[in-house]
Write a structure and sequence with these properties.
Elements lengths: L16 H23 L13 H15 L9
Organism: Brachybacterium saurashtrense
Protein name: Small hydrophilic protein
Length: 76
């Protein structure tokens, strides 16, 4: 196997565009899953009165944007 002295070792390999797109999709799916898990009601953190899961998701996202994590656990 020959090595090209002019190639940058830190640059992506040819054909890795598909891999980086796939990694981006995977990362996006993982972030969505994390947000959805946070929105699920648990025994320790139940839904508020007449609150739906999608309303809770929006509220948690709003609270997170306003003041950080807010100390709520993710409950794996």
């Amino acid at each position: 196997m020959t090595v090209d002295p002019h190639s940058d070792a830190a640059s992506p390999a040819p054909g890795s565009d598909e891999e980086s797109v796939e990694e981006a999709r995977l990362r996006e799916a993982q972030e969505l899953e994390e947000r959805m898990r946070r929105a699920l009601a648990t025994k320790e953190d139940p839904l508020r009165d007449s609150e739906t899961t999608s309303e809770r998701l929006r509220r948690l996202e709003r609270e997170r944007a306003e003041g950080g994590a807010g100390g709520e656990g993710t409950g794996s």
